[in-house]
Write a structure and sequence with these properties.
Blueprint: E1 6-10, H1 14-26, E2 30-34, H2 37-46, E3 51-55, H3 63-71, E4 79-84, H4 88-97, E5 101-105, H5 109-124, E6 128-131, E7 135-138, E8 143-146, E9 149-151, H6 155-166, H7 174-181, H8 189-205, E10 211-214, E11 218-221
Parallel strand pairs: 1-2, 1-3, 3-4, 4-5
Antiparallel strand pairs: 6-7, 7-8, 8-9, 10-11
Helix pairs in contact: 6-8
Length: 223
C-alpha cells in the first residue's frame, strides 16, 4: 500500500538514480527525482518533503552548497547525503553543516532503508509547526489550530500557507503563487486569496503581521 511519505532524490548518475528510485518505490515511498540542483530547486519550492537524499557531487553545484543555501533553514526536512566512501571530508562537512545523516557509495540497500526510516520517524515528532504563541499548523494533516481549536481553511488557503512555509527563507513571487494555484500568469486572484488568509489569521488566530508583502518581491511568512 502506498503511504504519503514523499522523498526527494537528487542524484546525477542515471543508473544509480533508477536503482534508488526502484528501491524506494518497492518500499512504498513516493519519489520525486532530480539530476541537478536546478531541478531540485523547483521541487523544494512546491513540496514539503519527508526526507531528501542528496548527492554531494552534482553537475551544477555541490550538494553541500545546496544544503547550506537552500535546505538547511527549511521547516523540518531531514537530509541524507550520498558520498563516496573515500570522501571523508565531504561527510564531515555535511554533518558539521547540520545534515541528519550520510551513506557512502557503494551502499547496502538495507542500510539506506534503515537510515530513511530512522530519520523519517524522528521527523514525525516535529510535524506540528508552532506559529505564534497559541497557533499550530499540522503539516501532514494540513490543519491549522488556535488554542487546540480547528481553524477552517479552504484548499487554496492551505496550499498558500504550505507554499509560504516551504519558502520561508525567501519571498514567494506572484508567478510561483499563480502557477501552484493554477491561475493565469497575470491574475490577481492569488493576491486576493492571500489577503483573505491574512484576515483570517488576524481575526481567528490574532496574528496581525505573520504574512508580509514587499512590492516587487512578493510575500514572506515570518515564523
Amino acid at each position: 500500500m502506498i503511504n504519503d511519505q514523499h522523498i526527494l532524490l537528487v542524484e546525477d548518475d542515471g543508473t544509480l538514480q533508477e536503482l534508488i528510485e526502484k528501491l524506494l518505490k518497492d518500499n512504498s515511498y513516493i519519489v520525486s527525482k532530480a539530476k541537478n540542483i536546478a531541478e531540485a530547486e523547483k521541487y523544494i519550492k512546491l513540496f514539503i518533503f519527508d526526507l531528501i537524499i542528496l548527492d554531494v557531487m552534482l553537475p551544477d553545484s555541490t550538494g553541500l552548497d545546496f544544503y547550506r543555501d537552500r535546505v538547511k533553514n527549511r521547516i523540518n526536512t531531514p537530509v541524507i547525503f550520498l558520498s563516496a566512501l573515500s570522501d571523508v571530508d565531504d561527510r564531515v562537512s555535511g554533518l558539521e553543516l547540520g545534515a541528519d545523516d550520510y551513506i557512502g557509495k557503494p551502499f547496502d540497500s538495507r542500510e539506506l532503508l534503515l537510515k530513511i526510516q530512522k530519520n523519517i520517524l524522528k521527523k514525525k515528532s516535529l510535524d506540528t509547526l508552532q506559529i505564534g504563541l497559541n497557533t499550530q499548523f499540522d503539516i501532514k494533516k494540513e490543519q491549522l489550530y488556535y488554542n487546540s481549536k480547528k481553524i477552517n481553511l479552504s484548499s487554496n488557503e492551505i496550499k498558500i500557507l504550505k507554499l509560504l512555509i516551504n519558502n520561508s527563507h525567501e519571498y514567494l513571487t506572484r508567478d510561483l503563487l499563480n502557477a501552484e494555484l493554477g491561475l493565469d500568469f497575470l491574475s490577481r486572484s492569488g493576491d486576493m486569496q492571500i489577503s483573505r488568509l491574512r484576515l483570517k489569521l488576524k481575526n481567528e488566530c490574532h496574528l496581525d503581521d505573520l504574512i508580509r508583502s514587499i512590492h516587487g518581491k512578493g510575500y514572506k511568512i515570518f515564523l
